[in-house]
Request: fold
Amino acid sequence: MAFRKKFAPRRKFCRFCADKDLPLDYKRPDILRDFITERGKIVARRMTGTCAKHQRQLTTEIKRARQMALLFYTTAHSSDVKKKTTI
Ligand SMILES: [Zn+2]
Reply:
């Protein structure tokens, strides 16, 4: 299954352009979480459909959120994963 598609083909759009009220802010990690992988990586623009302008802002806000400990840098920092991998 090397070339398995990750998503069903669906029209991609920038969520921040579509919804002007959607805050792009480090204080909203619940929203930012949609744009990072479960391992804490920022999801590429071609996967999420976010426009260049908003992807740039998003990157900054995610990095800010990480510094404020609202998001994690890697899996090792995530409390959910730590619970699962108790030695
Ligand atoms: Zn946009």
